[in-house]
Automatic annotation (TrEMBL):
It is an enzyme of class 4 (lyase). GO terms for molecular function: uroporphyrinogen decarboxylase activity. Catalyzes the decarboxylation of four acetate groups of uroporphyrinogen-III to yield coproporphyrinogen-III. Keywords: Cytoplasm, Decarboxylase, Lyase, Porphyrin biosynthesis. It is found in: Cytoplasm. Substrate binds at residues 30-34, 80, 154, 209, 325. GO terms for biological process: protoporphyrinogen IX biosynthetic process from glutamate. This is Uroporphyrinogen decarboxylase. Homodimer. Pathway: Porphyrin-containing compound metabolism; protoporphyrin-IX biosynthesis; coproporphyrinogen-III from 5-aminolevulinate: step 4/4. It catalyses: uroporphyrinogen III + 4 H(+) = coproporphyrinogen III + 4 CO2.
Length: 345
């Protein structure tokens, strides 16, 4: 991809442009969140999670907290993948102990009954501007959204689920209605990412947390094709933005995902063998990952060993160090410090 156009000294952005760094830059998925006491303190003052997301001053502060404490190479915008269903007109609540709820669920309501509410996204662009204004030139600012498939699983079922059966069933039973939902998510995600980029993020990640349980044909149709469409539409508006794909649980289908979606970099979950990935993925493709969040939680020798395995496997290619999934809320802070100490030694 050539040189980064802005922030020429940001190591993580350089890796996204294909330039291997001697020490891999690092950030952690869900790095702004409940494992941080300063997050919990601020969160307590707000009525709900959405109030925090919609309060740009507080959301900017939360975005910066992990960077300030640990000096990560990237800040990730504090928001959520479910703001897209919210903007498409579903009601969104986060029920303590139960996770997010979206109403009405699209398994038995059509999109047409919803009243669009794109105004909900304005506060998020304001958060981006605030963070971009103060972020150091060596720190990469990441925007994000959910992938169409993963966002659709929440919109259809109205909540999270272990195997996404309700949504997979709908995709077989009524592919026409389901593709209308996917297309609506693509449209608003392109606008949303474009808005984040115009407001100042340097790169974006597509979170496909539930890409795993689909059959091969359905994976092709509902993960790869919509992601490819989203990316080509975004690149019409933003030809230079680096895009990280994270198809969690995709296993060996990662090869097809990389090739057919044209992502600039691939995030691996912790189940992917780094040696396999290094051998079978294009040698110039930046790889992000893939420490087991449980190894970080446990610490000690298990952590040191797990870090070494990943560093050894990716020593010859552009690599961004990350977890294979979000950091667990019970993770001790000194284990994160230990990780950074090893990476920067
Ligand atoms: O630090 C960051 O990574 C940036 C912020 C971020 C959040 N969610 C904040 C959040 C990001 C990138 C996400 C992505 C997200 N949200 C995903 C994809 C990644 C993944 O983990 O698979 C998904 C599936 C969601 C949906 C979501 N949001 C769920 C299922 C929940 C409830 C479960 C939980 O972890 O509490 C959320 C809430 C949420 N999003 C919290 C945070 C910090 C916790 C809310 C709180 O503090 O009360």
């Amino acid at each position: 991809m050539g040189e980064p156009r802005k922030k020429p000294n940001a190591p993580l952005l350089k890796v996204l442009h294909g330039q291997k760094q001697t020490k891999p830059p690092v950030w952690l998925m869900r790095q702004a969140g409940r494992y941080l006491p300063e997050y919990r303190a601020l969160r307590q003052k707000k009525a709900g999670f959405l109030n925090l997301v919609e309060d740009s001053e507080a959301a900017a502060e939360v975005t910066l907290q992990p960077v300030r404490r640990f000096g990560f190479d990237a800040a990730i915008l504090f928001s959520d993948i479910l703001v897209i269903p919210y903007a498409l007109g579903q009601n969104l609540t986060f029920v303590k102990g139960e996770g997010p709820k979206l109403t009405p669920p699209l398994v038995n309501h059509t999109l047409k009954t919803l009243e669009r509410a794109p105004q909900h996204l304005k506060a998020i662009y304001a958060t981006v501007r605030r963070v971009a204004d103060v972020l150091a030139p060596e720190t990469t600012f990441l925007g994000f959204c959910g992938s169409p498939w993963t966002v659709a699983t929440y919109m259809v079922a109205g909540e999270g689920s272990r195997d996404q059966a309700v949504t997979r069933e709908m995709a077989y039973r009524d592919p026409q209605a389901f593709s209308e939902i996917i297309d609506a998510i693509i449209d608003s995600s392109v606008d949303y990412l474009n808005g984040q980029i115009e407001a100042g993020v340097d790169a974006v990640q597509l979170f496909d947390s539930w890409a795993g349980p689909l059959s091969p044909q359905q994976f092709e149709r509902w993960v790869i094709a919509p992601t490819a469409k989203l990316i080509s539409r975004l690149r019409e508006k933003q030809p230079h933005i680096p895009i990280i794909g994270f198809p969690k649980g995709a296993g060996s289908r990662i090869k097809a995902y990389v090739c057919d979606t044209q992502v600039n970099a691939i995030g691996l979950d912790e189940t992917v063998d780094p040696l396999w990935a290094h051998q079978y993925l294009p040698s110039d493709l930046p790889i992000q990952g893939n420490l087991d969040p449980l190894a970080l939680l446990v610490g000690g020798d298990a952590l040191d060993q797990a870090i070494k395995t990943i560093l050894d496997a990716f020593s010859e290619r552009p690599h961004i160090f990350n977890l294979g999934h979000g950091i667990l809320p019970q993770t001790p802070l000194n284990h994160v410090s230990r990780l950074l100490e090893i990476l920067r030694a």
